[in-house]
Amino acid sequence: MKRKNLLSVLVITVFVFLGLGSAVNKIHMGAFEYDTSKEEKSEQGNYIVKNDGTKVYGTKIKWKSGLFVKDRIGIDDHVFKINEVRGYQDGKTFYGRLGNEYIKRIVHGKINVYVDFTRETRTTTDATGHMHTSSYTRTDHYAQVGEDGELHEFGGQKAIRKLVADCPLAVQMASLSNHKMRRAIRKNRHYLNSIFETYNNDCKAVE
Amino acid sequence: MKSTGRDECCGHRGLQNNAVFCTFMSFTISGSMKNVRWFDLSLNVLLPLVAGVTLYVIPALANNGSIAKNHLADGLWAYAFMSAMLIVWGRVFSLQWIVAVFAAAALFEWLQYLHLFPGTGDWYDVITYFLFFTAALVFNNFFRTIQKSNQ
């Protein structure tokens, strides 16, 4: 009986790990094109967008967040709490709020796509007691439905297909095999962006 | 007279019409108990897992619509999960562990929904898991009969 209970725990553990393995973030750094230089600048200059949608225009935007600082964002002389401001436009790039930080928007439309880069450092000790430090940049992608929807992390083709489910063309673009998807991204750095842009373009192909 | 696997699975379970299937099963399960377990494990755990992985690796195989693409692989995972649990308990229902499997799957999806696990939390996934868990439970009687007939 005890052996069977142990085996049952093992079965649950193994299958949860299998489930996690299939849901792992498969969209690697560089899968999307992060360059936003093709987007248009606002004619009135930079601005911040408050939660109610009102915009405050100005030139210089600064924000601070952390354990020992007040979470504040300011545009010129106007200062607001971060939780009162849902995003800001700086030059050609829009940044949306994720928690107490702002992350870059790379696709704009009915579905907005954002990217967040986090520097991760890992320290390990080998058998001889020497410590090794390695660091890498973790890339997380988020989708937002509408201008004021919540940001939800997504990490694979399946999640993309769910997001664009009501657009057959975008679903078809997101349904390539792993091999073909890698080739499509190598050939066109903008490929994943264009899946969402197709969706945002009323399900018509974009040039 | 000791009954054979064919008698049990075909005679008592009302599968007389599927003679080919029954003959195949009786040949396959005519080995020792250990072989039956391996057969059970291969058919109900390994095969669904391999099929699910294949659907992930070769999406062209699931080109019949988004349901197959999005849910069939999850369903096969769920079927294999419940089957593995039933095989551990010798195909005898262990209510607490069956409930644990349902709870683990629901918790898994809920943690995805809360973004504490990677992936996308989705009610349709939970429904898929539960349907395939139920399928594994429904087929359990059939496989238990085969096991019994070889004891």
Topology readout:
The complex is a heterodimer of chains A (207) and B (151).
Chain A: H1 2-23, E1 46-50, E2 55-58, E3 61-64, E4 72-75, E5 78-81, E6 85-90, E7 93-98, E8 101-107, E9 111-125, E10 131-145, E11 151-154, H2 157-163, H3 168-173, H4 178-187, H5 191-200
Antiparallel strand pairs in A: 1-2, 1-6, 3-4, 4-5, 6-7, 7-8, 8-9, 9-10, 10-11
Chain B: H1 5-12, H2 19-28, H3 33-57, H4 66-88, H5 95-113, H6 123-149
Structural overview:
Chain A is globular. Chain A has 5 helices and 11 strands, in the order αβββββββββββαααα. In chain A, β1 and β2 form a beta hairpin. Chain A has helices at residues 2-23, 157-163, 168-173, 178-187, 191-200, and strands spanning 46-50, 55-58, 61-64, 72-75, 78-81, 85-90, 93-98, 101-107, 111-125, 131-145, 151-154. In chain A, the strands form 2 sheets. Chain A has an 8-stranded antiparallel sheet with strand order 2-1-6-7-8-9-10-11. Chain A has a 3-stranded antiparallel sheet with strand order 3-4-5, with no helix packed on it. By secondary structure, chain A is of the alpha+beta class. Chain A starts with a helix and ends in a 7-residue tail after the last helix. Chain B is mainly α. Helix content of chain B is 74%, strand content 0%. Chain B contains 6 helices and no strands. Chain B has helices at residues 5-12, 19-28, 33-57, 66-88, 95-113, 123-149. The chains are: A alpha+beta (207), B mainly alpha (151). The interface between A and B is medium-sized, with 31 and 33 residues.
